[in-house]
Design goal:
By secondary structure, the protein is an alpha+beta fold. The protein has a single domain, classed as Roll (Chitinase A, domain 3), CATH 3.10.50. 25% of the residues lie in helices and 24% in strands. The strands form two sheets. A four-stranded antiparallel beta sheet has the order 4-3-6-5, sandwiched between helices. Strands 1-2 form a two-stranded antiparallel ribbon. Strand 5 and strand 6 form a beta hairpin. It is globular, with a radius of gyration of 17 Å.
């Protein structure tokens, strides 16, 4: 993806599974997902990485919050909002980024995407590329 580059220096590998013992003394491993599917809406601002946007950081934040409010109220659906508002080329595909693993996105984006449940929409997340609203799809 042109806007969200693989950031090996920012992304860490997957965490080690944690072990917990149940009442029967069997050991189970809690395994965090190693891949997720996500869509996003990027609201870039002047000075953000790879941005040609002319809006200020404050204007971008306000727009991202307004879009988030519209999504929360159901007045717009995520793919439509991505097509209308996103500064990322993925907006043309409803914001779809496909499936990616840990370490493929910058840390702030990755942490938000991996913390969501399928179908859940994140709060506004800032990365060096601008403000994102992320929806986990897988």
């Amino acid at each position: 993806m042109a806007v969200l580059a693989v950031a090996a220096a920012c992304g860490k590998g997957g965490s080690e599974p944690s072990e917990t013992a149940d009442q029967g003394s069997e050991v189970h491993q809690a395994v965090a997902p190693q891949t997720v599917g996500a869509s996003h809406i990027l609201i870039a601002y002047q000075g953000a990485q790879r941005s040609t946007a002319t809006r200020t950081r404050d204007e971008a934040l306000q727009l991202a919050q307004d879009i988030h409010d519209m999504l929360a109220s159901g007045s717009i659906h995520f793919p439509d909002a991505a097509m209308r508002y996103s500064d990322c080329p993925s907006g043309a595909n409803g914001g779809d980024l496909g499936v990616f693993g840990r370490g493929a996105m910058v840390a702030e984006f990755e942490n938000a995407a991996f913390s969501l449940e399928v179908g859940e929409i994140s709060d506004v997340v800032e990365t060096p590329f601008g403000y994102h609203i992320i929806m986990r799809t897988q």
